[in-house]
TrEMBL record:
Binding site for substrate: 69, 102-103
GO biological process: asparagine metabolic process
Protein name: L-asparaginase
Domain L-asparaginase N-terminal positions: 12-202
Alphabetically ordered keywords of this record: Hydrolase
Membership in a protein family: Belongs to the asparaginase 1 family.
Domain Asparaginase/glutaminase C-terminal stretches: 232-324
Family annotation (InterPro entries): AsnASE_II, Asp/glu_Ase-like_sf, Asparaginase/glutaminase-like, Asparaginase/glutaminase_AS1, Asparaginase/glutaminase_AS2, Asparaginase_C, L-asparaginase_C, L-asparaginase_N
SMART domains given in the database record: Asparaginase (SM00870)
Organism whose genome encodes this protein: Rhodoferax koreensis
An MF annotation (GO) of this entry: asparaginase activity
Coiled-coil zones: none
Source organism superkingdom: Bacteria
């Protein structure tokens, strides 16, 4: 990992690079889809944004990883959480910005919020166009992220894209191509960045509680267990004609947890449900999360499989993974 100070100032903002489209390049400037992600280092990325010099902060950069975020893994998450914690502990650091790919940004955001619950802001930002684009969106997103990281009273993990600030619990990629690719569902955005100024709409993310306490113990830090030894948690989907075969195969492979992406208000095809109940009886932790993009699961009387409330299936997987890592798990 490299570390570089770009500018000196009383307060510093640290920019951690992890790759993604924001650091991607294509062979031709007009190609916004046929690019290769994670090609430009964070130093080079920031050098192309001269307006950062007017931010009023000392900017420190560090390359934590260089990956296409579709390939994000536990080792990067563990390293990233460690570096974020390190920098937030510095008294003169106002906040941390993370450049990240869009594909798994929502999962990383929830992971960091759950593990760190930071009292200072941690701002993930991204791009839908590569750095080599005729009109890249990454530079403005970075400027907006730095503005949020330096805002008075800011705390917790948020994502900033296309001038919108999304909380870690709610952010979700909702579009495959447009620049404004993220939404916050029913909760709505935390705020907007308008000409470098934050307009706050609701409270900053706070806390670690993700799912009903009866499922498992507290979600704690994930630094004590080597990433290679983290439990396996997979997602299966309920749909017309769903069966138990995939669940049975995963149990045979030693899966520790299963999230089922349910239909509607937590409903599961009867054949798949039978497989999940059998897995649960064998000690596999099972969690329901609706595949609907809006709303949350309202638990019905007599529900035999616990639910993740408003968490999407991919976020429920992060929550279940962390609970299985917790030494306090019941």
């Amino acid at each position: 990992m490299s570390e570089k100070s770009v500018e000196t100032s009383t307060a510093r903002i640290v920019v951690l690079g992890t790759g993604g489209t924001i650091a991607g390049t294509s062979a031709t400037a007009g190609d916004n889809i046929g690019y290769t992600a994670a090609q430009v280092g964070v130093d080079q990325l920031l050098e192309a944004i001269p307006a950062l010099a007017r931010s009023g902060y000392g900017i420190v950069t560090e390359q934590v990883a260089q990956v296409d975020s579709k390939d994000m893994d536990f080792a990067v998450w563990q390293a990233l959480a460690g570096r974020v914690a390190h920098w937030l502990a510095q008294d003169d650091v106002a906040g941390v910005v993370i450049t990240h790919g869009t594909d798994t940004l929502e999962e990383t955001a929830l992971f960091l919020q759950a593990v760190l619950d930071p009292a200072k802001p941690v701002v993930l930002t991204c791009a839908m166009r590569p750095a080599s684009s005729l009109s890249p969106d990454g530079p403005q997103n970075v400027l907006d992220a730095v503005a949020v990281a330096g805002s008075a009273g800011a705390r917790g993990v948020v994502a900033v894209c296309a001038g919108v600030v999304h909380g870690a619990f709610d952010v979700q990629k909702v579009h495959t191509y447009r620049l404004d690719a993220f939404g916050s569902g029913d909760a709505g955005p935390v705020g907007y960045v308008e000409e470098g100024a934050l307009r706050l709409l609701r409270a900053w993310p706070s806390g670690r509680s993700l799912v009903p306490a009866g499922i498992a113990g507290k979600v704690v830090g994930a630094s004590a267990v080597a990433a290679a030894d983290w439990p396996r948690v997979e997602i299966v989907m309920s749909h017309a004609g769903a069966g138990a075969g995939l669940v049975e195969a995963l149990v045979a492979q030693g899966v520790a947890g299963l999230v089922v992406a349910t239909t509607g208000n937590g409903t599961v095809h009867h054949a798949l449900e039978a497989g999940l109940l059998a897995a649960q009886a064998q000690g596999v932790q099972v969690l329901r999360a609706t595949r609907c993009t809006g709303g949350r699961i309202l638990t019905t009387p007599g529900a035999v499989l616990p639910d993740a409330g408003s968490l999407s299936p991919v976020k429920a997987r992060v929550a279940l993974l962390l609970m299985l890592l917790s030494p306090a798990r019941t």
